[in-house]
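hiii so my PI (J.) wants the whole complex modelled not just the main chain, which honestly fair. so below is everything: two entries, each one labled with what it is. i double checked the lines twice but i was tired so who knows lol
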Amino acid sequence: MKTPFLKPRPGRIRYVSPRFQGPMVLAFSAIIAIGGVIFWKLVDAEFQRVFPLAAIQGHYTFGSAYDIGRDLLARHLAGLFLGVVLAGSALMLLLVAITRHGIGKAVDSLRASADGDLSTPTDTGPIGKFDRFGEHIDAARSDTFASLMKIRSETTALAAGGISPEEFRLRWDELKQRIRRIAP
Amino acid sequence: MSGPKGPGNSSMIHRRYVFGLLLRLWVNFAGGVAILFVILYFALSRPLPGDYAGVFHALHNLSPFLRPILAVSVLVYALLACGSTSAVCVYILHKVVGPLYRMELVLDQYRSGAPTRTVSFRHDDQAQPLAQAFNLWIGTLRRDRQRWLATMMDAERHCLQDEATCRAKMEEALRKITGDMARYR
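here's the output for the full assembly
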């Protein structure tokens, strides 16, 4: 007896667009790395100053080096967290704004196409991913416009008359086929 | 921040999605800083020697000793925070980029002349108005196509009568279609 074999559902691909997700990952990594380097430089400079100073003071009322550096460490860690959070949040909000603008322009362009405007450029923005997406939309609109203009010129030519009945019938059938190919 | 609204008042990118994204980033950054704190706490919290001279020498030599520890702890923080933030970015941003990629495929398919089906994204995907706007455009084109074909077929029915009436009705239909197409610019 054969055991029923359930095929596992294919996993969803997460890394869809290296052009968009890649630079975003690099930008966030850069913020973290820059924050880390600044923290390192500042804390290192403080450590070079604080511990020798504590050594020459002579009153050793602390049990460990942590007791001496606790405040400066807390201050710098809080600074690192706030700096990275603020920079990361600003970048994220900028990204959201650019995405909204890009997608908004694409939606406007498609709605305008539904109203008959197939020639105004989409202008999705300077970000590579959206620029390319806008080009895709414009290419589809442009193809549709070219196809419609061909049909229109043919209908105009046929309506003008002066064509033999045989040729008229032939071109009429071709025109019907051409119209059928719009948005199949 | 509320972006342009699409049909049915659904926004391009939901606020909930943006807040979720920011919250995940903050948790990530906080986790990285916590790891950095733990490493430095263990490096600094070792008890100092009991006698006066021992404490003096320990504190005096602590700064050069801490320098590589600090460097390594910052490196560990950077690697862990970068890794987890990258994972969060890729995981979260695919809900925006995925629909765009899907739309690109649909547009390529449309341009190739293959039959185009109605586009719908997963319920948790962002940019839902994009699918609605595309469906609206394709729907309008299809309605126009059906109307033009119906006009032509209506004219063809007159071919059961005499040739001249048939030709006149066909030319009338063509003029009607030409006028109808004038809205496309």
